[in-house]
Amino acid sequence: MSPTLTVNKLDEGLPTPRYARPGDAGLDLHATGDHIIHPGGGRAVIGTGIAIALPDGHAGMVCPRSGMAARHGITVTNAPGIIDAGYRGEIEVILTNTDPDRPHHIRRGDRIAQLLIVPVATPTIVLADSLDTTERGTGGLGSTGT
């Protein structure tokens, strides 16, 4: 059985979040207003007009839209943005324009990001003086090749 996502529409003029196609992972999030995101790293915090109540044991992940990233260099600044199950405020999306030259215009109602609802493990924390050994060990960035 699928979990229930309770949505409070704070802006009745915007569409209710929905999956664009059957089998899609992300719900579309829409902009509440018009914004210009300046080139070369300009940012904007954009409201979505919704608040949600996530089911216990789940989190929301606000992710970029691939078309906006490919065509305009627009991405979610802190991707993925994490929404904790206890948060009840409006979901806001921080967008950045990575295009070096062109500003990007967001219009009210534009789809600006996608929201994934994912289960979250909350393990018990156990302190240890050492960890078990593995084949990889302490090899970090780039340790498995290019």
Automatic annotation (TrEMBL):
<keyword id="KW-0479">Metal-binding</keyword>
<feature type="binding site">
    <location>
        <position position="78"/>
    </location>
    <ligand>
        <name>substrate</name>
    </ligand>
</feature>
<feature type="binding site">
    <location>
        <position position="84"/>
    </location>
    <ligand>
        <name>substrate</name>
    </ligand>
</feature>
<keyword id="KW-0460">Magnesium</keyword>
<dbReference type="GO" id="GO:0046081">
    <property type="term" value="P:dUTP catabolic process"/>
</dbReference>
<comment type="pathway">
    <text>Pyrimidine metabolism; dUMP biosynthesis; dUMP from dCTP (dUTP route): step 2/2.</text>
</comment>
<dbReference type="InterPro" id="IPR029054">
    <property type="entry name" value="dUTPase-like"/>
</dbReference>
<comment type="function">
    <text>This enzyme is involved in nucleotide metabolism: it produces dUMP, the immediate precursor of thymidine nucleotides and it decreases the intracellular concentration of dUTP so that uracil cannot be incorporated into DNA.</text>
</comment>
<dbReference type="Pfam" id="PF00692">
    <property type="entry name" value="dUTPase"/>
</dbReference>
<dbReference type="InterPro" id="IPR008181">
    <property type="entry name" value="dUTPase"/>
</dbReference>
<keyword id="KW-0546">Nucleotide metabolism</keyword>
<dbReference type="GO" id="GO:0004170">
    <property type="term" value="F:dUTP diphosphatase activity"/>
</dbReference>
<feature type="binding site">
    <location>
        <begin position="65"/>
        <end position="67"/>
    </location>
    <ligand>
        <name>substrate</name>
    </ligand>
</feature>
<dbReference type="GO" id="GO:0006226">
    <property type="term" value="P:dUMP biosynthetic process"/>
</dbReference>
<keyword id="KW-0614">Plasmid</keyword>
<protein>
    <recommendedName>
        <fullName>Deoxyuridine 5'-triphosphate nucleotidohydrolase</fullName>
        <ecNumber>3.6.1.23</ecNumber>
    </recommendedName>
</protein>
<comment type="similarity">
    <text>Belongs to the dUTPase family.</text>
</comment>
<dbReference type="InterPro" id="IPR033704">
    <property type="entry name" value="dUTPase_trimeric"/>
</dbReference>
<keyword id="KW-0378">Hydrolase</keyword>
<feature type="domain" description="dUTPase-like">
    <location>
        <begin position="15"/>
        <end position="145"/>
    </location>
</feature>
<feature type="region of interest" description="Disordered">
    <location>
        <begin position="1"/>
        <end position="21"/>
    </location>
</feature>
<dbReference type="InterPro" id="IPR036157">
    <property type="entry name" value="dUTPase-like_sf"/>
</dbReference>
<dbReference type="GO" id="GO:0000287">
    <property type="term" value="F:magnesium ion binding"/>
</dbReference>
